[in-house]
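Batch job 17 of 40 flagged for manual review because the log was empty.
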Amino acid sequence: MTRRGLILFAALGLIWGIPYLFIKIAVAELTPEFLVLARCVIAAALLLPIAARQRALAPVLRRWKPLLAFAVVEIVLPWYALNAAEVSLPSSTTGLLLASIPLVAIGVAFLMGRRHRVTALTVLGLITGTAGVVAVVGLDMGGGDLGAVALIGVAVVGYALGPAILAKWMHDLPGLGVMASALTIAGLIYLPIVAITGGWPTEVPSAPVITSVFVLAVLCSAVAFLLMFALIAEIGPVRMTAITYVNPAVAVVAGALVLGETVTVYTGLGFALILVGCWLVTLPDARAASLPVSSPQSEPERPLERSSQ
């Protein structure tokens, strides 16, 4: 990896590891739905002009059906679920459980007809990763607040579905246009939701909460997406998926240092098992790699492979 690639990788790994900390701070005063709305509006306001200048919006909007589906499973549902879950869950636990996304992605790929040969290592990885989730939920949390854990499950499934939708129906579209459009759609969806539920703040939020909203929207969304596109161009979408292993560690450290969240032995055990499981299920299939690939059927490199945090 080049020096530029290392810098981009480190920066994105840090930026995508801290959203859970700032979500935890923000939901102390804001409703989960208003936090989604604020984050979408600010991030879209920053990305839309850039996408328009690059003429990246028109081709995306022509495929409005998969775009709408992507916006729902990648932003509308997961961002609310994360916000609502962190009302009661520690931010570090949220980050750890989201590390299981590659495990769910295997099942999503199978259901959507993408070829993935199930090997012994794949099965071992699924079992190991599941054991890690059990260690975090059943041992570290004592099985408490399973409703919040279920919300994290919604986010995990959404983040696994999002890239699959991109790969199947939108792989040839500009990633910046996709994200700018999806954020705009999500904001438009949440505007009436916040109005109907009365989720508007009743008083001016505190400085830490306002700062958290802007960090989530500007740094963890708009800037992160721009860095992601640069990183994909530098090292490719496949190697970039290794960033999945960095984000949870950042989330745990940030939660412990800033919020004083407890890091137990079971936290470390669950984290290790989840990461090993994800590593095993994402190992390249040596047998498939040795088979000749015909160019007409070869899968194009996708412009966007990561889920938004």
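Reviewer: the log was empty due to a logging misconfiguration, but the result itself is present. The CA atoms of residues 84 and 125 lie 29 Å apart. Unflagging and moving on to job 18.
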